[in-house]
Amino acid sequence: MVSLKAQGDEQMVANLTVKIEGSIASAGKLQLALYSSENDWLKNEMKTLYIDVAQDDNHTFHIEGLSVGTYAIAVIHDKNNNGELDMGMMGPTEKYGFSNNARGMFGPATYSDASFYVEYDEVITIKL
């Protein structure tokens, strides 16, 4: 389990729990990237969290103190700990997922497909 407390103004009111499901090998890290705008989607994450899957089989992230608003999440299982989603000729060679379990047609999911609104404490599940 990994927790992160967001910092900023006084409007922080919500906590977000993100559960990762799917067959996850016991090597590498889960990397969660939180985005707060379409302009930043898959470029400039607001927050990044990691879980060492060999030491934590819970696969749950906790983000505390989020401002009410719209967010989207991208998660990868970085099996070789190189900090990026490895690609092959047919696409990604490591597991990945997005909030809302959104999928792209010939690339990543769009921000609008992956985005969700946080107003109260939320629990979401992302399948890899």
List key phrases describing it.
128 residues, mainly beta, Immunoglobulin-like, globular, DUF2141, DUF2141 domain-containing protein
3D structure, described in words:
The chain has one helix at 111-114; strands at residues 2-5, 12-21, 29-35, 47-52, 60-67, 69-78, 87-88, 91-92, 96-98, 116-118, 122-127. It is globular, with a radius of gyration of 14 Å. It is mainly beta and 128 residues long. InterPro entries: DUF2141 (IPR018673). Pfam families: DUF2141 (PF09912).
- As an assembly, this protein is single chain
Distance between the termini: 17 Å
**In CATH, what is the class?**
Mainly Beta
Shape from CA axes?
globular
What do we call the CATH topology? Immunoglobulin-like
Strands, count: 11
Question: Can you tell me the number of structural domains?
Answer: 1
Q: Report Rg.
A: 14 Å
Q: Describe the main β-sheet briefly.
A: 5 strands, antiparallel
Mean pLDDT: 91
* H/E element sequence: EEEEEEEEEHEE
| Structural class category | mainly beta
Low-confidence stretches: none
Number of helices: 1
| CATH fourth-tier homologous superfamily | Immunoglobulins
Q: State which percent range the strand residues make up.
A: over 45%
CATH architecture: Sandwich
What proportion of the residues is helical, as a percent range? under 10%
InterPro entries: DUF2141
Protein name: DUF2141 domain-containing protein
Organism: Fulvivirga marina
